[in-house]
Design goal:
198 residues; mainly alpha; two-stranded parallel ribbon
Length: 198
């Protein structure tokens, strides 16, 4: 959990600037074309970019040093393919740390489900599938040592993370209407323009 908090700290330092690099061109394009800036639409787009960047940072930061890699356990211990093992560990050992990690993994993809529902009008099936695929991307990134930049994995590939992240995307999709009721909305027409990039 300490590693996750360290990664989150780095993500919050760098993420806002990287997200701005992605959102700013869209804002400029919208202004040039329409001679106005839709503040809320640009804010939502920026927030989506910031979320995705921070979530990805959290899955692969902090980067290991050569000394850290040399001290790591055998590769076989970095792959966990037993479904619901995390829950069994909690039941058997009552570890608050494991429970915190599970809740964090749920929270990690809840915003994804929200954005897919409210801004991209995805069906529940597509949102759940996207949640699974994004989680798989995170896990493969970890398993391959940041896509073979490193000679081995330095974070655990855990089947439970796939399950829990997918659940998080589903829950984000389900509660999206409740959250949107508390936030300034984007009309359906604006949503379609956002998705189409017009």
């Amino acid at each position: 959990m300490e590693v996750t908090l360290q990664a989150a700290y780095i993500a919050l330092q760098v993420g806002p600037f990287v997200a701005l690099l992605f959102a700013l061109p869209y804002t400029i394009y919208g202004y040039v074309r329409n001679k106005t800036v839709d503040v809320w639409k640009c804010t939502y787009l920026y927030t989506f970019c910031l979320y995705f960047i921070c979530a990805y940072f959290v899955t692969w930061l902090p980067l290991p040093t050569a000394e850290t890699l040399a001290r790591l356990k055998p590769m076989s211990e970095f792959i966990q393919l037993v479904p619901f093992q995390s829950f069994l560990d909690i039941e058997r050992e009552t570890l608050l740390r494991d429970l915190a990690i599970i809740l964090f993994n749920v929270a990690l993809t809840m915003p994804l489900g929200y954005f897919l529902k409210e801004f991209f009008h995805a069906s529940m099936k597509k949102a759940v599938l996207c949640g699974f695929l994004v989680s798989l991307l995170y896990e493969v990134t970890q398993l391959t040592g940041l896509f073979f930049i490193y000679p081995r994995a330095y974070r655990i590939f855990d089947i439970d993370d796939l399950i829990i992240n997918t659940l998080g995307a589903y829950l984000g999709y389900v509660v999206a209407p409740l959250i949107s009721g508390l936030l300034p909305g984007i009309s359906d027409k604006q949503n379609q323009r956002l998705v189409q990039g017009s």
